[in-house]
Amino acid sequence: MNSSDSKHSSDLRVEDIEKTSSSQQPAIDAHYDPKYVQRTLLKIDLRMLPLLGLLYAVALVDRTNLGIARIAGMNSDLKLNVNERYSIASMIYFIPYILLQLPGNIILRWLGARTWLTICVVGWGTAQLGMGFVPTWGYLSLCRALLGVFEAGFFPALVFIITTWYKRHEVQKRQVFNFWYALLINIFFQRLRRILAYALTGLKGKGGINGWAWIFIIEGIITITLGVLTWLFVPDFPDKNRFLTEEQTKMILDRVEADRGDAIPDKITGTKIIKHLSDWTLWAFGILAFKIILASSTSLIFVSFSSDVLIIYDACLRYGFFITIILGTMGYNTKMALLLTAPPTFLLYAVYSVSAAVSCYFFAWLSDKTRQRALWLAVQNIITMAGLLITAYAKVNGVRYFGLFLVNAGASGCVPGVLAYSANNITSHSKRAVSTATIIAAGGVGGIFATTVYRQQDFPRYLNGIWATMGCQLLMVALLTATSFTFKRRNQLARQGKIASLEDTPGFYYTI
């Protein structure tokens, strides 16, 4: 992972100060005023990132409201306490969510970003609305499955779209911003939602509808309204956008073309999908995502208010589903249980999450600055492992809690880090669609796997789960070493002329 590899990565053909030995032509960026470039990028940032972050935060809220509705009367009305009905209704969401990631990205490229995202948002809002009218738990499960169908297309599309607008070493900071912007909104929504749910239970009997059903109905209407805003304001792909001038659009496409040669999308075909899936590094990135999610789930086991962080990762959603139920078992009535879940941990959780956000952004800035990905991902792995060991073996609870801060800080930054690492080493829209879908689907599997690793019989230290997570972190370091060696070797062969071109793109070099 030396500096020479960094200098020959994506910005090599873009920055005027860096040139390959085989070409002394000025980079395309050099033909544009740097202030003009920055103003245009800021315009894109403001148009795209806040709304996409808001939509993702709403998706997180919509997928985790069963616990609130259950304690508000849904449990008795739909008889969810029979056998495993509630668990089935909760987890059936993940089946289509995992399986439909790749088909969603294929449809995205076919329909366009604005149309597809609108369909996703309105679709899951309609599924949410439908939950307010279900007569049995079977119909509830069907609506949950439909929720998974439409949300499956959203997050990989979000990641895909962001990567198409920027140069490779501009991506990670924006992924981090979007990620933590959604988290902060979600913190507020999660608390406000419980207070809102408290108020909505007062609508019991209005229009012949129970109080719990109003929770789904109101939230569904809000989401559908956001779907309309999606159609009006979310930008499409750069080559199809309507909010930039022709000169600005040309500049963005020039930058992307100079950076990696895929400003104009290629056609997605079955042959290409199979070819991309045969690339072992794509699966390595997916496994990296799987390991990150498992590490992220650790903090949930030990401190309940970490759940919102894990909801961001689609990992181990049990707290979001069960917290209001647990309060109900303590003897609180419905309204008090809803209120008690809102304010008590807000300030402490804010400190917990902000510390992770600072670490996340610092490593994103460092990674973009040095143009190295694997090295800083490995450093964050080490931080995570240190936190795991402290949490497992420290005697003082305060020290163990500090270990959770380290775990959260280390694992949080790896999520956008892996997304950026993958995006930096891919050209063509078809491979980008396959890659982002595979990574996010693997993360979803990791979230389900996490629920089986931390077993109740291992309470209170969960040593088996922690060591399983440690093993995954060590495997992640091994995979980072393998991908770094592979990319570095391929770069060397390309410079020596022994490989015609990397990723079928002349002048392209991998980011280590």
Write the layout of secondary structure elements.
Layout lengths: L2 H5 L26 H29 L3 H13 L6 H7 L2 H6 L1 H11 L1 H18 L6 H16 L1 H12 L5 H30 L10 H23 L12 H15 L9 H8 L2 H23 L4 H6 L5 H12 L4 H7 L5 H25 L3 H20 L3 H28 L4 H25 L9 H33 L17
Helix pairs in contact: 2-9, 2-10, 2-11, 3-11, 3-16, 3-17, 4-8, 6-7, 6-9, 6-21, 7-8, 7-9, 7-11, 9-21, 10-17, 10-18, 10-20, 13-21, 14-20, 14-21, 14-22, 16-17, 18-20, 19-20, 19-22
> Which bin fits the share of residues in helices?
over 70%
E-strand count? 0
> How large, in whole angstroms, is the Cα Rg?
23 Å
What's the multimeric state?
Answer: single chain
Q: Taking all residues together, what is the mean pLDDT?
A: 78
For the terminal residues, how far apart are their CA atoms?
A: 6 Å
Q: Helical element count?
A: 22
* Approximate shape: globular
Q: Secondary-structure element order, as H and E? A: HHHHHHHHHHHHHHHHHHHHHH
- Given the helix and strand composition, which structural class is it? mainly alpha
Q: Show unreliable segments.
A: 1-26, 303-327, 341-345
Strand content: under 5%
Major sheet details: none
General description of the model:
By secondary structure, this protein is mostly helical. It has helices spanning 3-7, 34-62, 66-78, 85-91, 94-99, 101-111, 113-130, 137-152, 154-165, 171-200, 211-233, 246-260, 270-277, 280-302, 307-312, 318-329, 334-340, 346-370, 374-393, 397-424, 429-453, 463-495. The relative contact order is 0.14.
